[in-house]
Design goal:
Blueprint: H1 2-25, H2 31-37, H3 41-44, H4 47-99, H5 107-127, E1 132-136, H6 146-156, E2 166-171, E3 190-194, H7 197-209, E4 228-231, H8 235-251, E5 255-259, E6 262-266, E7 273-275
Antiparallel strand pairs: 1-3, 1-4, 2-3, 5-6, 6-7
Length: about 280
């Protein structure tokens, strides 16, 4: 019985020794190999899947690059707009500062200045006509000679006028067409520019003395017509003179006249009043 127990013990010792030897001689597996052996990646990922993944990554990189570029362009555009806004703010601030200036002229002063400048411009325009006269009432015929008419008018007024005293002489305004069945339209006025102002003043003076002169014996076709010689006024002053005469007629003012392009009015007795504006 003791022999049987000894043999069993001896067998167990040999088995334990064999196990220890086997464990020492067995080659250990690497960590990577162990991971792939025990992971689902070895079964689920193929070469085609990896290529697809790399393609998507490259596309994503391209999209990110384009997005970054778009962001940079947006920043540049925003910088330009911000600069323009700053410029507008600066200009607006200057305007506000100018509006709020304590010494800035008010609206009434500005309007008064504009009115004064307009009057000065009108006076200068009238001064440019200082050597001019205007003759009205002379019948108008085709192919007429205006220089000859002016000399005839001067002769009628008792003035010796040479063609060398005349710079220009012409009808002014649009031609008034005659409509059958209606009255003959009034003839256009004749604007005359003279070389010397002294000759112009002489003609005006004699025209005032000889008021009521007509075209009789002036070698002008048609029946005799009364003509008038006046200062040549600008369009504005001519309209103003007409309104002044209408006003004087309605208000029983007796005298309205011009002198050197300036209009005056007087009631009956008293000081004269200069007229420069319609009001």
């Amino acid at each position: 019985m003791a022999d049987v127990l000894d043999d069993s013990a001896h067998i167990e010792e040999e088995q334990e020794e064999f196990t220890r030897v086997t464990q020492r001689t067995k080659k250990p597996r690497s960590k990577i190999q162990s991971t792939f052996e025990h992971s689902d990646l070895q079964d689920s990922f193929t070469t085609q899947d990896l290529n697809k993944l790399f393609t998507e990554l490259r596309a994503m990189r391209t999209e990110m690059s384009n997005f970054t570029k778009a962001v940079m362009e947006l920043k540049t555009t925003m910088a330009v707009h911000i600069e323009r806004i700053d410029s507008f703010d600066l200009r607006l601030q200057k305007i506000e500062d100018k509006v709020n200036e304590p010494n800035r002229p008010n609206q009434g002063d500005l309007e008064a200045t504009i009115c004064r400048l307009e009057l000065e411009l009108r006076d200068r325009d009238q001064d440019a006509l200082i050597n001019d006269i205007e003759i009205s009432g002379i019948p108008e015929v085709k192919n007429e000679g205006t220089f000859h008419i002016i000399k005839s008018v001067a002769t009628k007024l008792g003035i010796d006028l040479d063609e060398r005293d005349i710079v220009s002489a012409e009808r002014v305004g649009a031609v008034r067409a005659h409509v059958e069945g209606q009255a003959v339209p009034r003839p256009r006025n004749i604007a005359v520019r003279l070389v010397r102002r002294a000759k112009r003043d002489e003609i005006l003076r004699e025209a005032r003395v000889r008021r009521g002169c007509t075209t009789s014996n002036m070698d002008i076709p048609g029946e005799a017509k009364r003509f008038y010689v006046n200062e040549h006024l600008t369009k504005f002053n001519s309209q103003l003179f007409y309104k002044a005469r209408e006003f004087a007629k309605n208000k029983n003012w007796r005298y309205v006249w011009t002198r050197n392009g300036t209009m005056y009015a007087r009631y009956e007795h008293g000081s004269e009043r200069r007229i420069r504006t319609p009001t």
